[in-house]
Recover the amino acids of this structure.
């Protein structure tokens, strides 16, 4: 009898014997990593917005907030509509269910962020409509739909080409959206934190950063599992498509960077931003077991504290500080 694989059509309901225990362990880790939006103190942020931010920094934040308004909703929709139904592992679907909760929590965080930062209802509405009326954000959304919608019409994965489409969706989802678009956004937040600004936003971003790191770790575990079960999929064509995808994502994010930094933000240059994005892209290729494409180094010392280059070691460095009942701010410059 042929051994079943992760992308076989159908919904296996049997948890014992467990075929993919690593997924279950990741689910249990995720349950420990619980936080709430109510823990975040925004009071100093309001002072910073009124009194301390330069006009160029205000513009950067307004664009960043507009991206946050829709980014995680795109992720959530893809998770439910395109990924969950094709992962034929009950323990894997347990993790994805938890991830969907975390994405909803991120949406709540960014909703609260917008309501706090943008008191004017008309400005707030414009921010939520950014995917339609801000070209640099629309370009990122169009990129997401281009690479992820190819599996939307697939109800059952029946052949090699459909498995390849699933993989490209998952890789776009984890490497380009979570692992590049959001990591770029985190860099802007942590740059401001390095200047002592918007600590409420930074503290909430710490939690989101950890969640996204876990989401990527799970996605890479899925990719590795499919690689073991269908090694023929990981050929030169797949590698070329992934490099093309990441290069396009870097280009999209640079368009966004040009928008954010158009007024000149002291301490952030377009050159350094491109190098950082190329560095992140190389890290994603490494996560996928593929050779680097850019050979870039991280130009942002303030991001080295975030351990962006060591996502794969996340679970090995966890401590009990990141669990239910945490009080106070948890910073990434602490060992965990």
């Amino acid at each position: 009898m042929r051994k079943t694989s992760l992308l076989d059509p159908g919904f296996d309901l049997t948890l014992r014997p467990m075929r993919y225990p690593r997924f279950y362990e990741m689910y249990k880790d995720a349950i420990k990593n619980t936080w709430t939006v109510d823990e975040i103190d925004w009071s100093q942020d309001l002072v910073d917005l009124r009194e301390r931010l330069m006009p160029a920094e205000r513009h950067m934040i307004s664009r960043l907030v507009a991206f946050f308004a829709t980014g995680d909703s795109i992720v959530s929709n893809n998770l439910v509509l395109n990924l969950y139904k094709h992962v034929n592992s009950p323990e894997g679907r347990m993790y994805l269910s938890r991830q969907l909760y975390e994405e909803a929590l991120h949406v709540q965080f960014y909703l609260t962020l917008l309501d706090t930062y943008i008191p004017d209802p008309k400005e707030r509405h414009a921010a939520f409509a950014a995917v339609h009326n801000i070209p640099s954000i629309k370009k990122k959304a169009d990129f997401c739909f281009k690479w992820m919608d190819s599996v939307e019409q697939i109800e059952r994965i029946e052949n090699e080409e459909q498995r390849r489409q699933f993989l490209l969706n998952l890789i776009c989802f984890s490497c380009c959206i979570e692992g590049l678009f959001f990591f770029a956004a985190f860099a802007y937040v942590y740059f401001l934190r390095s200047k002592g600004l918007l600590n409420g936003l930074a503290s909430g971003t710490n939690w989101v950063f950890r969640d996204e790191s876990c989401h990527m770790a799970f996605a890479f575990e899925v990719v590795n599992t499919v690689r073991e079960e269908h090694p023929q999929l990981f050929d030169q064509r797949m590698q070329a498509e992934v490099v093309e995808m990441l290069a396009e994502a870097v280009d999209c994010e640079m368009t966004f960077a040009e928008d954010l930094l158009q007024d000149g933000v002291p301490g952030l240059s377009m050159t350094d931003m491109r190098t950082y994005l190329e560095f992140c892209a190389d890290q994603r290729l490494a996560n996928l077991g593929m050779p680097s494409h850019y050979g870039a180094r991280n130009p942002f010392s303030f991001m080295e504290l975030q351990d962006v280059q060591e996502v794969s070691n996340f679970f090995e460095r966890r401590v009990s500080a990141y669990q239910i009942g945490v009080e106070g701010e948890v910073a990434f410059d602490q060992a965990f």
In short: The chain has twelve helices and no strands. The domain at 45-317 is CATH 1.10.620.20 (Ribonucleotide Reductase, subunit A).
